[in-house]
Amino acid sequence: MTTSSSVLNDVNIEAVGGLIEAVRRNPSVGDTTWAASVTWRGGFRSDAQVRDFEPVFSDEPQGLGGTDSAPNPVEQVLAALGNCLVVGYAANATARGIELTDLRVDISGTVDLHAFLGIREGHAGFDDIRASVHLESSASDEQIAELHQHVLSTSPVGHTLRAAVPVTIELATA
Amino acid sequence: MTTSSSVLNDVNIEAVGGLIEAVRRNPSVGDTTWAASVTWRGGFRSDAQVRDFEPVFSDEPQGLGGTDSAPNPVEQVLAALGNCLVVGYAANATARGIELTDLRVDISGTVDLHAFLGIREGHAGFDDIRASVHLESSASDEQIAELHQHVLSTSPVGHTLRAAVPVTIELATA
């Protein structure tokens, strides 16, 4: 049991509160830009560089022609959704004074490979994605249900997937 | 310079061809399901388990209340897009007999934090995503342009982001 809100759930809620105040004072502070640079390593292998972190590797299963050395891109999308939901629950539980004792998100999604393989035109992406949230807390069912709804309504990756996002992909001129 | 199509671009194009034939013969082979399981590690830290691979870590920058130990979820989405595009170029270049000598995809995207922070309701996800593809090959500009258009029309992660995907997120009953 934690006794100070500053360490509840090990979340630095003051930093979040400070950011909220900063964005309220100056809305442009809320305009954030994120980036990644991905380098091909031969075959279906690549690695993604984000800021100064260790590169994140990607490959495809052997059945899809890869060498199965790392999660593939669609699995990475599911992982990103789960990671984003975890931040949402941790942040908003802490803001409500709710202590979380355990949190796990299991995610699955289906992709029909016909479009990717060029067998027919159409949607090549996920047809649906399902997440099951395992959350342990002493909070009431009503508090957890309200927390859950708030997280769903504010999840950056959740909204990215649920909405049609403009994506521009251009060949750089040499 | 490679001399056998089986090793062009280090891509196992026979495996891809075999999969295409298998899906043509039995369309249900193209119905694929992917999964990830994400576990909260306190604060805004989590790790995503995909199959038997090493877990992929996630965190948030300090300005957002995290401890900045790993790429955050929206950066992971951009990385997944780049990794997916790389597979698309490598697979489809190889199928066309085009040798790639270098390939890098730089991606950025903007997120307005107002919705995530609960300051106002609305779209919490990426407002736009831009990718710049640096591709080196001896193929003609026309061949590369055709390859590029084919990759855009068949990219699983690209289509996932550009379309509104049904996402169901439910609290598991204890």
Automatic annotation (TrEMBL), chains A, B:
InterPro entries per the UniProt record, alphabetical: KH_dom-like_a/b, OsmC/Ohr_fam, OsmC/Ohr_hydroprdx_reductase, OsmC/Ohrsf
Pfam families: OsmC
Gene3D superfamilies, sorted: 3.30.300.20
Protein name, as recorded: Unannotated protein
Lineage, highest ranks first: unclassified sequences, metagenomes, ecological metagenomes
